[in-house]
Amino acid sequence: MPTSPYFPTYYGGHSGEQNLVQDLVDEQIKLFGSDIYYMPRTILKDNTLDDIVYSKYQSQFQIEMLLENVTGFGDTSEFISKFGLRITDEVKFRVSTRRWDEAASGYNLTVNGRPNEGDLLYFPLTQDLYEIKFVERENPFYQFGKLQFYTMTAEIYEVGSDDISTGVAEIDEIETLFSSAIALTMAVGGTDNFTVGETVTGSTTGITAEVKSWDSDTRVLQVINRTGTFAQGEAITGNDSGSVHVVGTFNTLNNTNSEYDQNYEIEQEADNLIDWGEKNPFGEYGNFMDSF
Is the pLDDT score of 49 beyond 50? Predict the structure, then answer.
């Protein structure tokens, strides 16, 4: 026996009921939601192994979302692990499917038609970046034969070496403050001064980086978003300023954006205990210093 044509079904549905529920969803989000910055992710992959080498967030758009819950901000969201302090604050946002189609149109998304895992959200209330970990698309399951909203589960974004250049000052400042940075002490001489935010390029290695700060008195250049390691003695040129200076000394283990990194101290202590020269690559004998 066929289903009744007088009641809504999953398959056909009725545009009147579908639009009514969608209007109610949109109204609730507009009344009780927040304007969230959505930042699509651009992925650069290794051509051989197809691994993700680098991520860029260079565009953004605002869309209203409803904060569903903040249970992830409880006592267990900060803990000490073997890798140090871990902060896993978690939030859930809901966004209208209709508003999503309108706002996201024209942006380069990895998967079109819905929010993407790996993209970032900036919540002005907490002034934090959140990375989308999972997008629930079918709960509730096709009310009146249609999906009215997406639910995104997101965690605090752990700043690494990704390029964040959205054009929104309060967002881009997060990269400057927390992205891994190293200090290059330039040799005496050189021309002009580097400008903050410009890209610098190594003359021999072709490595590029973004200028975080430049002190002309001490000749210390701090850079972020490096694509590799500069060579000592090579000239570095500012793409915008035209400034040219030669690299003197630097230390890639010392992250100047963190007061807690101990990479350099651990390396120094390890060098006093173990000879890391490759005398016997297949065993421990000969790798320990004679004094031991």
Answer: yes
Q: Compute, in degrees rounded to 10, the torsion defined by CA atoms 25, 30, 35, 41.
A: 20
As a whole number, mean pLDDT of residues 90-113 equals: 89
Tokens linked to 91: 């939030």
How many Cβ atoms from other residues are within 10 Å of residue 223's Cβ? 25
Contact 200, 194 (CB under 8 A): yes
- Mean predicted confidence (pLDDT) in 106-123: 88
- Mean pLDDT of the residues in the chain: 82
- Give the span between the Cα atoms of 155 and 195, in whole angstroms: 33
Measured in degrees and rounded to the nearest 5, phi and psi for residue 122 equal -110, 120
| 121 and 37 Cβ atoms separated by less than 8 Å | yes
Q: How far is CA 67 from the centre of its chain?
A: 21
Q: CA 292 to CA 290: how far, in whole Å?
A: 5
Q: What is the pTM of this model?
A: 0.73
Instruction: Output the CA–CA distances (angstroms, integers) from residue 180 to 70, 157, 159, 223, in the order listed.
Output: 29, 14, 8, 9
Strand arrangement, sheet containing 42-45: 42-45, 52-57, 163-164
More confident residue, 159 or 115: 115
CB atoms within 10 A of CB 61: 15
pLDDT the model gives residue 7:
64
Domain limits, the chain = 15-168, 180-261
